[in-house]
Amino acid sequence: MTILEKSYKCLVRIVTWRKLAETVSHHLGKGRLVAVEGSLQISKSEKDGRTYTNPQVIANEVRFLDWPKDSKKGNGQSAGYDDDNFDVPF
Where are the residues of the annotated region Disordered (predicted)? Predict the structure, then answer.
């Protein structure tokens, strides 16, 4: 197996504060698609002789790019929004 065939995962911690933290805690869940704008900070730590790189983003803004699965109504539309006329604001 070559290095190009290996699959790598990079998990990045997102740090939010104040009202943004409240909003994210209520609406963000595993599998949700979001765009995060902020500053990247990278720290390193050691454990059991191994060095780990720990990236995190201090978020200024978080945009939700999809609809939660449980917000769909029986008629196929999202609660309070018309899916056909939705534009992502960026």
Answer: 69-90
Cα(61)–Cα(54) distance, rounded to whole angstroms?
A: 21
Backbone φ and ψ of 46, nearest 5° = -125, 140
Residues 6+ apart with CB under 8 A from 67: 78, 81, 83
CB atoms < 10 A from the CB of 26, how many? 8
What ranges in the chain are assigned the alpha helix state H?
18-27
Render pLDDT for 32-63 as a digit per residue (tens, 0 to 9): 889 999 999 999 999 999 998 899 999 999 99
Instruction: Kindly state the tokens that stand for 16.
Output: 């939010």
Threshold 0.70, pTM exceeds: no
CATH 3.40.50.150, applies to 13-66: no
What average pLDDT is seen over the chain?
76
